[in-house]
Amino acid sequence: MNKLKQAVDYFVRYLKPYWKGLLFAAVFTLAGTYAQIKAPLYLGDAVSGLTKYLTASFTPGAHASLQDFYKALVGMVIFYLLSEIGLVLSGLVISRISSDSVGEMRLGLFANLQRKTIRYFDSHQDGKILSLFTSDLDNVFNAMNSAVFQIFSQGVLFLGIIWMMLEKSLTMALVTMALSPFAVIVALSIVNKARKQIERQQQATGDLNGYINEQLSGQAVLLAEGRQQASVEAFGPFNEEVRKASQKGQFFSGLLSPLMQGFSLLNLAIVIFFGSWLVLHNGMDKAAGLSLIVVFVTYSQQYFQPISQLTAIYNPLQLAITGANRIRDVEEKPNEVNGGKKQAGPLKEGVVLSHVDFAYQPARPILKDVSIDVKKEQMVALVGPTGSGKTTVMNLLNRFYDLNGGKITYDGTPLQDFDLTSLRNRVGIVLQESVVFSKSIRENIAFGKPEASLEEVKEAAKQANIHDFIMSLPDGYDTKVTGADNLFSTGQKQLLSIARTILTNPDLLILDEATANVDTVTEERIQAAMENVMRDRTSFVIAHRLKTILSADQIVVLKDGQVIEKGSHAQLIAEKGFYSELYYNQMVFD
Ligand SMILES: Nc1ncnc2c1ncn2[C@@H]1O[C@H](COP(=O)(O)OP(=O)(O)OP(=O)(O)O)[C@@H](O)[C@H]1O
């Protein structure tokens, strides 16, 4: 119930601005439905008129006229036409409102995700986040577009028919409605069975997608290990589960319509039988009797339509409620806190980490009592075995996460006192795995400073040693990078990323040296680019190369989340500790 309320709140929030349109749709639906339930009465009058005409034609001396018949026929056509117009118009308004409001929901969701903390993305798979935009919002759209409209129009139709039938004849109305409790029970049990299969199908599809995702992202390993056939074979059971669940789901969903049709036909026979019995045994006027039967035949046909439609939309509605709740869950996850008001200015003194404790998960401390003091324009090289916490230190400097203990200050002010954007504008990051967006090379370099002129972009690229490569491409700086393109090697991507950082002219630089897949020429280029970007800047570098480490003002050695040694290369070698062992074993420097 709580989930339903949450979903309703969500829909109401996005539909509120469209109240006028919804009102129009409601009025059109009411008018259309009214015309739809009124039309059978004219059909009854037409039958009555025709019967009177036929009776009079066979009665000598009687005046036979088809006027009533024609009048009723015209009335019937007009009312059916009005009903179509009303329902089509309301359908159009509803579909417009659905697509507009779902567009706003999509925008709201995306904007919301942009405010989430890095922790949110750590604990949610990309595929799951993407499915919020695809399957969940699709389900919401389908429900808004058809289910909401159906609930309203079919609900009104259902009540309207009952009302008309009661007005016309209480006995016939009760006869027409007699079968409906059975029909509802049967319909609900089918819908329930279909729902279970739909849930099973969704689960199976999720598992299948997960498997495909994993196998495609590990394609290179599959090829290298010759596991393609095994991969196809393992795909089989996932595929089979989806097939089975969707087949059963379709079976049950498909059963609903013919069964309701069956009920409707059975009802038709009952209505005709009792109608004729009433006419024959109550000495009713022939014309009125026939008219009554025809009217109820039509109503009995119409009466089962809302029952089957309303039960059929139960499942799409359920999916939409689940979808809306999933989207709301995103809204409820914590956003990045921008508590500080201070604007970070150019760095004057330096950055200090003092007694920093940090854990990604409460039970597993990662950094323990880490203290590092870096003065303006100094360079700190972080070294240490894999998993020792080097990247974690970098993540904290940019305030991707908040600390569990201790503090980090920028010119003496704790990071959380700064306005986040102003702080991050002062910090530049070059990650080991550089990100290239589906834009032109120029836009990629100017990502953090879109207003940069082409000259500035070129200058940054020159300093990053990637200008010549860009100029060798047919479209130069206008070359579009598409997702599928493997335009850049890992090293070149890092050069591009360095150019991007140079352009934003950060005060504090965080750099993770690329180690993998870099040939010696590119390595030299990266080295030179790094020297350019680090010149006259305060920087933290996760260093893998000897040259970088030797030129550092300070080397900080991390092990198991603790600083175990600190000092210049000469000092640390003289200490003959962990660093000198690393150095002599060449473990980090090859
Ligand atoms: N987002 C995360 N959520 C939970 N634990 C994490 C997360 N990122 C890193 N860790 C854990 O924190 C520890 C330190 O990781 P970190 O990436 O800082 O090490 P590192 O020294 O940079 O390693 P490497 O040299 O291999 O990049 C590791 O044990 C890792 O499992």
UniProtKB/TrEMBL annotation:
Residue intervals passing through the bilayer: 72-95, 147-166, 172-191, 251-275
Molecular function as annotated in GO: ATP binding
Localization per record: Cell membrane
Domain ABC transmembrane type-1: 23-319
Keyword flag Transmembrane helix: yes
Membrane protein topology class: Multi-pass membrane protein
Gene3D superfamilies hit by this protein: ABC transporter type 1, transmembrane domain, P-loop containing nucleotide triphosphate hydrolases
UniProt keywords, alphabetically: ATP-binding, Membrane, Nucleotide-binding, Transmembrane, Transmembrane helix
Pfam families cross-referenced by the UniProt entry: ABC_membrane (PF00664), ABC_tran (PF00005)
CDD domains given in the database record: ABC_6TM_Tm288_like
InterPro entries: AAA+_ATPase, ABC1_TM_dom, ABC1_TM_sf, ABC_transporter-like_ATP-bd, P-loop_NTPase, Type_1_exporter
Superkingdom of the source species: Bacteria
Protein name: ABC transporter ATP-binding protein
